[in-house]
Amino acid sequence: MIIWSYKLERFDLMADGGHTAVEESLNRLGDEGWEFVGVQTVGEYPYALFKRPVDVGEAAE
Q1: So where are the chain's domains?
Q2: pLDDT tens digit string along 27-58?
Q3: Residues contacting residue 12 through CB under 8 Å, at least 6 positions apart
């Protein structure tokens, strides 16, 4: 059975430095093993949802 860890990341294109900065953030998260699942807007901000499998050692944390 796979155990998943989830992460929400808020992106504000105006404050975060535009598309390039958001793209860099997405690439960094991908390098860390996070897989993009989808996006949901809450208020005026889009939140990206990511998931990755949890290592057995991480599950206790």
Answers
A1: 4-53
A2: 999 999 999 999 998 888 889 999 999 986 65
A3: 45
